[in-house]
Amino acid sequence: MESILTDRLATLSHPHRMAVFRLLMRRCPDELPAGEIVSVLGLKPSSASVYLSALTQTGLISQRREGTKLLYKINLAAAGEVVTGLFFDCCGGRADLCAPQLADLIQTAPLPTDKKLNVLFICSGNSARSILAEAILRDIGNDRFNAYSAGTAHRSDLNPTAIDVLLANGLDTTQLRSKNVTEFQGPDAPQMDFVVTVCDRAANEDCPTWQGQPIASHWGMPDPASADGTITQKRLAFQQTFDALRNKIAAFTSLSFESLDRSALQKHVDEISKLTLPKD
């Protein structure tokens, strides 16, 4: 066990291998093709292949072939073993050196039930997907949730088609505005209970740690603003994104927040990312 731990720590000691590991952790539970990892991190394909091989050999990530592509995914169990090895096995049983069992405290700590839960949806521009998600949660969960949205790159204008689709579905848009994530990271910002990225670009970025240990997840969705075709086809892309987000958010609001601990909630929220709309 000790040799596995030291091998994994040695693998993570390289900054580029660590960058790959952190990217896959942020994109969990997604599987990423090697080409996307190369593009996001600006690596040479040959170098990336070496880094991915090292991470796979030590079990920190998993590899799966799909056709001609190799897909990579974080191995959460292995990541947990590294943390356990560092905090518990390496301390030699000394109470004055061992860190408290933070994982157990975080996993079993219940969410507050005496107030609304704060949920922040993030995408790159805060003009379409995260705006749709904010409006949908405010519509179907306003009695139990405070809905927010923000972008990693500020844009001043909301996408007009996104607003049109919200209005066509009977949702209020008066409170919507484009915001940057920095608005939610100051000392006076509301403390989040959930942070959900809804676009891959935002999840790829290394955002600062959020106060209060919110449950974080990634529900990656295609950008409807990049859809090609006629005006009708482009509008359909926004409606499909709206429907997909409403399906996910409906599943989210139906979770038993009072009876599930943080570990169980994390698994349920991650599973929601895989939900698809039922076919007609």
Automatic annotation (TrEMBL):
InterPro entries: ArsR-like_HTH (IPR011991), HTH_ArsR_DNA-bd_dom (IPR001845), Ptyr_pPase (IPR023485), Ptyr_pPase_sf (IPR036196), Tscrpt_reg_IclR_N (IPR005471), WH-like_DNA-bd_sf (IPR036388), WH_DNA-bd_sf (IPR036390)
UniProt-recorded name of the protein: Protein-tyrosine-phosphatase
Keyword match Transferase: no
GO terms (BP aspect): response to arsenic-containing substance
Domain of life of the source: Bacteria
Keywords from the UniProt entry: Arsenical resistance
Signal peptide: none
Gene Ontology molecular-function annotations: DNA-binding transcription factor activity
All copies of domain HTH arsR-type, residue ranges: 1-94
